[in-house]
Design goal:
2 domains; Arc Repressor Mutant, subunit A; 6 helices; mainly alpha
Amino acid sequence: MAAFAQEMELLSRRPTQAHRAAIQAELFAAGLEEVNHPMLVSLLQCAEEDPASCQAQRDLAQQLYVSPAAVANSLKGLERSGYIRRKPWRDDARCNQVFLTEKGREAVTGCREAFRRASQTMLHGFSPEEQSLLLSFERRMLQNLTRSASNNKKED
């Protein structure tokens, strides 16, 4: 059982790291290497398509499983590079509403294409049934881990 746990530990990190590297390589090839958090750019497009769903930084952080500070730094970099602009949220001046610029909208398209190519490479040789099973396992593991993390926080 210990050997299984050790291999799971290694395998749980390596595909994530390799996937991240593949996405970065795709972004570099597309001239989008300055997009410091491509998933954030995609989430921002969703918020722009439905302004009522505009989220606070802490909500974005939860969705991305990163700290609010990491989201703040990413937003700062995206703004500096001309991908987004911010303005105070009408309903709550403590929050900023984030909008994609034209450059940002173009980057979203490039980012999504990079995600698609990296995922296509990662899943090469998997049947549709295997892909479905893998997705099911990944969701269950994520649920287990997030449920465990929230239970640990409640105990503190």
